[in-house]
Amino acid sequence: METLRQTDPSPRAQKIAQALRERTQARPRIALVLGSGWSNVVSVLAEPQAIAYGELEGMPQCGVAGHAGNFLFGKLGGVDVLILQGRFHLYEGRDMAEVILPIAVAAQLGAEALVLTNAAGGLNPSFRPGDVMLFSDHINMTCRNPLGGLPAGERPLFIDMAQVYDAEFRAIFRAECENCGLVCRDGVYMQVLGPSYETPAEVSAFRCLGADAVGMSTVVEAIYAHYLGLRTAAISCITNAAAGLSEVPLCHEDVLAALRQRERALGQLLLGAVPKLAAVL
What we know:
alpha/beta
């Protein structure tokens, strides 16, 4: 796997976190990254305070439609949270330090746990659009590692990756899925670079490697969060069958339409789970 020399995001994250502290009294315990289709939870956020990425020196702005680009502070079920409205993707040509910067900022602000969400294509033929998949493990097919090139310091770079996704968190989300009427799966997620969708041959190869779902984000964020010591959960909403598994051509508009059908339930899932996650921190 390629390890490129990259900028350590920590100094920039420290400055951004300090600027945020000067503008808010909020001290989040849990950070959430909202992927496509997961924004409904914002409507039930209590005491919201949004600070745009563009208002903070050193913070890049989002370049993908649907990613608002805000640090959104507030309470979910009485728990202080930080919602990251917008992530950065490698397929945009971003360097790795930008992709993981929001996670670094959340950690600097004192977050103890991270919930990553996304929309994904289903590789497992038993998965259906609208299902929710909890990450049990991942495959990093980006050929980039967020720890590559970081300076050796107080944290070891050669970290164990056997338990990236917290088992206790997964159990909580599994129970909440049942409460919300969502079909819950456990599976292995593969991150690819994108932005093009996968070919049928690639889908077949990925399935042989053991992947159950595929997308263009999340894994490198999870690796970095694990390095920082954050307890982490990651969840996909399955929006479509991957190329070659359906006769319907892949279309981004259809993906968004599938997400809209689940938005309310996904928001309720996060609202119900967050207090229980906080209780076990």
